[in-house]
Fold:
Amino acid sequence: MGAHLVAIENGEEENWIQNEGVGDKWWTAGTDVDSEGSWYWAHSNNTMNYTNWSAYQPNGGSHENCAATDGGKLHDYQCSAELYFICEK
Ligand SMILES: [Ca+2]
Ligand SMILES: [Ca+2]
Structure:
């Protein structure tokens, strides 16, 4: 099994992210690139039922379609941004 970008699908995983000291602006697998506002985890196609968006996020509309970490929460950024990424497997 290969690693994929992390999906934060419940509070347990969110705590893990926070406890690992993951900083801001690390890519997750979350995206709404296919349909604006319909966020899902790219590796599994699972809808992002558990989402802990940072305040005022997502705010990028069709210009920001990839989800990155932001203080343990999620923030939509332009997918072309150069960020660190975190994987799970
Ligand atoms: Ca978007
Ligand atoms: Ca944003």
User: Anything to note?
Assistant: Residues 57-60, 64, 75-77 surround calcium ion (ligand 2) (CB under 6 Å). The CA atoms of residues 30 and 42 lie 6 Å apart. Residues 4-88 form a domain with the Mannose-Binding Protein A; Chain A fold (CATH 3.10.100.10). The first strand starts at residue 4 and ends at 5.
